[in-house]
Amino acid sequence: MSLEIMEEAAREVLETTAGLTVLAARRPAGPEERFDGLVATIALGGTCGGTLVLYCHRPVASTMAAAMLGLDGREPDDESVRDALGELLNQIGGSIKRRLGASGRELALSVPVVVAGAPLAHRVKSTVPPVCVELETGRGPLCVCLWAAKGTT
Amino acid sequence: MKTVLTVDDSKVVRTMVARHLEPYHCRLLEAANGEEGVAAARAHRPDLILLDVTMPVMDGREALAALRRDPACQAIPVIMLTAESGKDLVLEIARLGVTGYIVKPFQKETFEKEVSKVLGPPGAAAAADAPRGDAPVDIKTVLVVDDSEKVLAAAQAALEATMTVVVAPSGAEALAAYDRARPGVVVIDLAMPEMDGFQTLERLRGRGQSAYVALAVRGEEGLHERARKAGFHAVVAKPFRANSLVDAVIDAANSVASPEQLVGALFGEDGDCPVMRLPDPRSKVLARVGPALTRRLRDLAEQGTDKLVLDLAAVTEITTEVVSTLARLIADADGIGIRTAICAPDATVMEKLRQFAETKDTPYGPSLEQARQQLG
Fold first, then answer.
1. pLDDT for B246-292, tens place per residue?
2. Distance (Å) from the alpha carbon of A52 to chain B's nearest alpha carbon
3. At residue B172, does pLDDT exceed 60?
4. Contact between chains at B15 and A111 (C-beta distance less than 8 A)
5. H or E segment at B163?
6. Hey, where are the domains in chain A?
7. How far is B359 from B372, CA to CA, in rounded Å?
8. Chain B contact for A63 (CB, 8 A cutoff)
9. For A3-148, which CATH class?
10. I want to staple B130 with a disulfide (CB 3.0 to 4.6 A). Which of B25, B193, B265, B375 is the partner?
11. Alpha-carbon gap, residue B84 to B9, rounded angstroms
């Protein structure tokens, strides 16, 4: 899967649903240790299967959840923050799927799982290095990584 | 009012949908998976179902198939609201029969275009169905919103002797309950799931000129202060004493009532005799009703009334304000041919009134019936 597709999908979702403006994007080799707050994960099945992961810090996740809920500056509770992060990753996965579908490749998405805590060392077991895109939003960075399953493209 | 059922495993999405549906002024139902969604559709027969695909327990495809198999639900319009848009999936869903398909992330315009196919344009729905923000409210009705059945029961028990009580177990259900009851006062728990007290207040504000009382956990002064700043008339700490809640609700009702409404709430009847209940002087009601009270007395006289009982059951302290109000009432009534008697269940109240020239000769009885008998 191309990094462009991941970046476009993440941009679309963050700007449309979470009300963030993506200021810049970079492509690190993997998720950095500094993302120690929240991790959302969904499993992908199909020709581009693997594990799609969204990393971010608690304040950014809180900002996104507040925007989605229309809280006008008030703090969302932890459950809402986790729920919002899972939904955002679900939408990013859906957006990737739609873009891949245009080139005839199918993808199936699982229900998202979100874990929180610091320090949090999250790694996906894979023999293939991840494909990652980090987005700077002005409210802090987020990182989307895909660990492709063995034998997928 | 139309009913919309949102089926999505994400509370955040359900809340977002509720916000987008606000202009449609509809009753909202929610379900967290396909199984709950099908059950809710069978129970409530909504006008529209917004259905996610990827959900635990029962996904959207299975739920849609179950709805289409059920004769009672097969005609309900369903719009898919999902991040899933694979070709095979869309074809499968189209075969089952859907009214629309909204792909997440979605823009407001896309959402409205699809939803309006079923609910009509948002403005039209609101104009036809929604009560206007300036439509009158009933100051004798209170709506209590709390997700705890125990709190709702306690509030109902405390308030039902004074007000007509309507309850709602969530912010979403409070919107429809408000439109039906038009309460003068809404008591809202601040810590409700999905739509908290602040969000509920925001949604209700434009619907009418009601007063709002917050229920908040005792000791959280920061939260209480935030509630006052947000526009709550008063904050009652939980667990609450019945009197605290009643006092706060009556004070809130008085704050939004017109002078005519306040006067109307003060008058009743005992047998064929009009009774005016003198309010607690601390409520400041008397300061707002002077001319309206005079008009009411004239109306009574024009209707042929020649007697009036002044009920002091709510008066626990004789202040100069109470005495001057009573003196004015007695004199005004006398001037238009209405004789008055005082009902004071508390004997010490009457003892004190006997010390004032303005009230010492007024007929008196400790009960309404005895006071009425003084007037013949």
1. 989 988 888 888 788 788 888 888 878 899 988 877 666 777 777 78
2. 15
3. yes
4. no
5. none
6. 3-148
7. 17
8. no
9. alpha beta
10. B25
11. 14
What is the rounded distance in angstroms from the CA atom of residue A93 to the CA atom of residue B300?
73
Q: Which domain does B111 fall in, by range?
A: 3-129
Does residue B18 sit in the same domain as residue B122? yes
Question: Is the dihedral angle over the CA atoms B191, B196, B202, B203 positive or is it negative?
Answer: negative
Evaluate whether ipTM surpasses 0.85: no
B16 touches chain A (CB under 8 A): yes
- Are the Cβ atoms of B88 and A90 closer than 8 angstroms? no
Are the beta carbons of B16 and A83 separated by less than 8 Å? Answer: no
List Cβ neighbours of B118 (8 Å cut-off, separation of 6 or more): B47, B48, B77, B79, B99, B100
In the prediction, which pLDDT does A9 show? 92
Contact B209, B137 (CB under 8 A): yes
CATH number at residue B303: 3.30.750.24
Round the CA-based radius of gyration of chain A to a whole number and report it: 14
What distance in Å separates the CA atoms of residue B307 and residue B317, rounded to the nearest whole number?
25
Query: Amino acid identity, residue A40?
Result: A
Q: Determine how many CB atoms are found less than 10 A away from the CB of residue A46.
A: 16
d(CA B211, CA B261) in angstroms, rounded, equals 14
CATH code of the domain containing B74: 3.40.50.2300
A66 close to A98: Cβ distance less than 8 angstroms: no
Among B256, B273, B298, which residue terminates a domain? B256
End-to-end CA distance of chain A: 6
Q: Assess whether B226 and B173 both reside in one domain.
A: yes
